[in-house]
Amino acid sequence: MANVNGGKENLQALQVGQPLEFEATNISDLDPEQIVKKTRQVETQPLHNFIDTWRAGRIGDDKDVWWKKFEDFCVDLIKITFKNDFESAIPTRPQNTRVVNGFKSNRPDINLSNSPKKELADRPHIIWNRLIEEYNCKQLKFDCKNYSETNKITNKEIYQLFEYLDPEEVGRIGFILSKYGNTDGSAGVAMSSLKRFPGHQYKFIILKKKDIEEWISSYEDTGSVTDFFETLYSRNTPNVSVTI
């Protein structure tokens, strides 16, 4: 059951400055569940605005600026959609350099502590607990790659994310957020290159625009992203995951 305390007031506050389709909503005609869902839709409207620009390919002449805009979008995506599932949904973007598995590298774009709320953590086989049990995932690691259609994710980017993953302190699973996904064959190449690091199993999940839109839709419909990530984790196609 959705928490509707102050729902109308929250929705009215969020509507200020939003598109007319939201401003025109007669809140008094909505039942409590509709108010909660409409509130989530207003929250995610800036995400949709970015995706509309992204989809149209209007990335501007300054690619450095759009790289930062995409990273900011990903931070907002995580902050908005994880807040009902995690104790802390505030992602961090550390910039310091460290040595991981013998390699000097920058930290990944976005880190989020794997901290499911008690009502989720107490559910048997919940995805967040499974990530801890199967991959020692103490932090969710998101790497943002705003690449063009002709410059998709390759084994290089997968290997780069691998360098960020300390198997004891961080975990052995990482996520790459992108527009077009990975290049055909890159998953196999990455698996071959990473086999020389024995002793651990790693998983890399590559999301493209369609997956990100599904992620947002799942939050709008349910107020949670747990089921979406459960489905994402369970998929077994080269375009989504690589297991080493």
Strand and helix layout:
Elements (H helix, E strand, L loop, with lengths): L6 H9 L4 H4 L8 H24 L7 H19 L15 E4 L2 E4 L3 E4 L4 H4 L5 H9 L3 E7 L9 H10 L8 E6 L7 H9 L8 E5 L1 H14 L3 H9 L6 E3 L1
Parallel strand pairs: 4-5, 5-6
Antiparallel strand pairs: 1-2, 3-4, 6-7
Rg over C-alpha atoms, rounded to the nearest angstrom: 19 Å
Question: Please, how many helices?
Answer: 10
Taken together, the total number of domains comes to 2
Bulk shape: globular
Structure class = alpha/beta
Look up the CATH topology of the largest domain. Answer: Trna Endonuclease, Chain: A, domain 1
Give the tally of β-strands. Answer: 7
The level-1 CATH class of the largest domain:
Alpha Beta
User: Per CATH, which architecture of the largest domain?
Assistant: 3-Layer(aba) Sandwich
Strand order of the largest sheet: 3-4-5-6-7
Mean pLDDT comes to: 77
The percent range for helix content is 40-55%
Poorly predicted segments? 1-5, 237-241
What's the short story on this structure?
Helices cover 45% and strands 14% of the residues.
